[in-house]
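ok so I'm stuck.
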Amino acid sequence: LKVNVIQNSAISFSVCIDNKFKNFDTFYNALEKEFKIEVQKGVDLYTVRHFDENAIAFIEAKGTSLLTQVNKETIQIVLEPNE
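replied:
not stuck anymore, here's the structure
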C-alpha cells in the first residue's frame, strides 16, 4: 500500500492510501481485529502547490471534502466525488 496522506489526532488516525497493488483487504483484516475502522472507497486526492481561494473552491465544487491539510504552500484535499 502507498500512503498519500496521514492525519493524527488524540483519538483518531486518518490515512489515504493507494490500493494499486490490491493489498487493502489484507491490511483491513489485520487492523479490524484491534481497531474500529471506517472505510471510504472511491475518493479523490487533490494536491495543489501555490494555491489560492479560487483553486480551493474549484476542487471543493467537485464533491464533499473528507480531509483537508494545508501548509504554507500546499493544500491536500481528499474528496468524495459528486455523483
